[in-house]
Amino acid sequence: AQVSVGGRVIGPQGFGLSRATVTMMDAQGNTRITYTNSFGYYRFDGVPAGGASYTMGVRAKRVIYDSRQVFVNNDLTGIDFTPAS
């Protein structure tokens, strides 16, 4: 089965960050890339389910975000990123 994974990227002022690059890499190094919309939301569709582990990260100008590990069994929402402390 295929599912979707999504969330929001928050900028330093607490608002959604537009045009940030969000990556999702599986254990074999295959990487998916998407961009946030004008409100900071992103979504990956067609992600294989079944407990696969993915490393997710964000790249944005002048803002640093920590990457995170997610396990995908079914649709995931609310995978939000805030600036690293």
Notes on the structure:
The protein has 85 residues and is mainly beta. It has strands at 2-8, 21-26, 31-35, 41-48, 52-59, 68-72. The strands form two sheets. A four-stranded antiparallel sheet has the order 3-2-5-6, with no helix packed on it. The protein is globular and about 35 Å long. The mean pLDDT is 95.
Itemize the secondary structure elements and their pairings.
Elements: E1 2-8, E2 21-26, E3 31-35, E4 41-48, E5 52-59, E6 68-72
Antiparallel strand pairs: 1-4, 2-3, 2-5, 5-6
Please outline what is shown here.
The chain has 85 residues and is mainly beta. It has strands at residues 2-8, 21-26, 31-35, 41-48, 52-59, 68-72.
Structural class: mainly beta
Low-confidence stretches: none
Main sheet makeup:
4 strands, antiparallel
Instruction: Please give the alpha-carbon distance between the first and last residues.
Output: 37 Å
Total count of helical runs of at least 4 residues: 0
User: If you compute it from the alpha carbons, what radius of gyration comes out, rounded to the nearest whole angstrom?
Assistant: 12 Å
Task: Give the strand order of the largest sheet, numbering strands 1, 2, ... along the chain.
Answer: 3-2-5-6
- Portion in beta strands: over 45%
Q: Which series of helices and strands comes N to C?
A: EEEEEE
Give the helix proportion (percent range): under 10%
- Which geometry do the CA atoms define? globular
Query: What is the β-strand count?
Result: 6
Q: What is the average per-residue confidence, as pLDDT, rounded to a whole number?
A: 95
